Structures are given as structure tokens and as C-alpha cells.
What does this fold into?
Amino acid sequence: MTPGASGRAQRGHPLLRMLALRVLGALALLFVISVLVFSLVHLAPGDIVRNILGPKDVSPEAVAVIREQYRLDDPVHLQYLHWLGNALSGDLGQSVRHQSAVADVIFARAGNTVLLALGAFVLAAAVSIPLGVLSALRPGSALDRSITVVAILGISAPAFATSLLLLYVFAFALGWFPLYGIGGGGADTLWHLVLPSAALALGLGAILTKITRTAVIRELEQEYIVSARARGLPARRVRGLALRNAAIPIVTGAGLVLTYLVGGAIFVETVFALPGIGTLLEDAVIFKDVPVVQAVTLLVAAVIVGVAIVVDLLYAALDPRLRR
It folds into this structure.
């Protein structure tokens, strides 16, 4: 092995160790979350048998069949182990409400939520990061104060409030966008998702604007920037150095605020009547569709943990100190 290859291998070891530790930690966290969710769902009031059979009088034989089908007579820990074993093999169970495989129910809804989340994130990043940079480059100016006020309002406003406001103004009053639903597919679906994505992007963009502004201002106050200015480097090059190093906390913050999409999507999908994961989880909790609640909660947790791992790897890729 050449010296260069040996050096590259040695530099790769810390990243591989970090990735292995993050994955192991993620698996442990998902296990704890699955136990907590399973326990809380089973402790919640309501009877799954009554939800399936309805309010009408039913025979004890019908109740016994349902309880046997969902193993409701087993102790809770045995029910959990049975569910966990099936989940590890890819079987997430049968939906109580939809009477079909949980995986099929989630798959039918997941695409809409992914489109909504991607649209909101792209819109928020495209607008908020440039605004944060402009605000940081002119601290104390009228532009800076205006952007800060708008960002604070965006952070303070709950997702359902901004959704209702945008729905009333742009869909009901002006009629520019559809009132509700997901459309008939293709361009029609994308058009239906414009307003919900904007509603979800407001809060996310406000947070990202504040993170970007703080990161850039902090970087501009570093000693190497002061020294670069003292040596007479062009202002454009000095700003380039600061922005390059400020990218580390911006990328980290962008990854972390993605968790905002999880809670926000539930409210936005409810207001706009979008058939996504958020409304699926809401209906499952109300109906006490235990298999769906468990599967969706674990899926959301896995996505959040996965995003955190990707953020860690991006942080290591951008910061040479971590690679050493």
C-alpha cells in the first residue's frame, strides 16, 4: 500500500467508527421508542374490538375471533415480541380500520407526504438561506431588522394558523389555488401541494433564517476574518471565507430542523385534507388502529434518526478536524 493510500485509509477509520456508533445508537433508540409507543397505545382508553365490530351488539364468538386474530388475550410483552418479530421480517401487521396490510396503507399515503416535505424544504432553503446571509452581512440595518421581525413571526406562528391564513387568502378569497385534496396526479397534484408546502415552509424557513444569520455573524467575528481584512484582502474574498466555514452549522441546523416537518405535516395535512402520513396517524390514533400507530410512529422515528446520521456525516465531511 502506498503512503497516500495508507493515509487515506487511516483518515477513513474515524468516520467508519463514527458511522458504526451512530447506527448502533439509532437501533437502540428505535427499540426504546417502539417499546414506549407499544405500551402507551395499549394503555390508552378504548377497545380495539369495539372499533372493528362497531357499536352494534355482537356475539361473544365474534369478539373471541377478533381477540384471537390480534392476539389481544396474550400478555402485553408477548404481544410486543410477536409484533417485533413480524416487523423485523417485514410484516407490519393488518390495519384494523382499513382491513389491509399496514405496509400497503402507509405506502399509499407516503408519497404525498414526501412530496409535501420536499417541496417545503426546498422552498424554505431557497428563500431563508439567502435572506439569512443578507441579514448577517448588514447587521443593524433596516433590511436586517425587517428580516429578523419576519423570522420571529414565522417561528412564533403555529403551522395550523399559517395554513388556515394561506388557505383563506389564496384559496378561498383569491381562488388562486385549490381549497383541499391532492388532485388527480401529475401536475395537478403538484399544484394542489403548492399552498400546503408554502404553509409548512414558513416555520421551517424562519428557523433556518435565524440559524444562517447567527452562523454567518459569528464567523465574521472570528480572528482569521479580522486578520484577513487587516491584510487588505478583497471584501468579496473575505465574505467567501466566512460563508464557506458558516456552511457547517447551517447544514447541521438544516438537518435538525427537518424534524419540524414531522409535527407540522400533521397539522398542514389536516387543514388541507391531504391524504398523507400525518392524517393517517391522526385517524389511527382516534380509531385506535394500533398496528398503524406503531408502524407510522416507528417509521417517523427512523426517518428522524436517519436524518441525524446523515447530518453527522455531512458535518464530518465539511469539518476536517473531525476526520482527524
The domain at 106-323 is CATH 1.10.3720.10 (MetI-like fold). DSSP finds 14 helices and no strands in the chain. The CA atoms of residues 160 and 267 lie 5 Å apart. The chain has a mean pLDDT of 78.
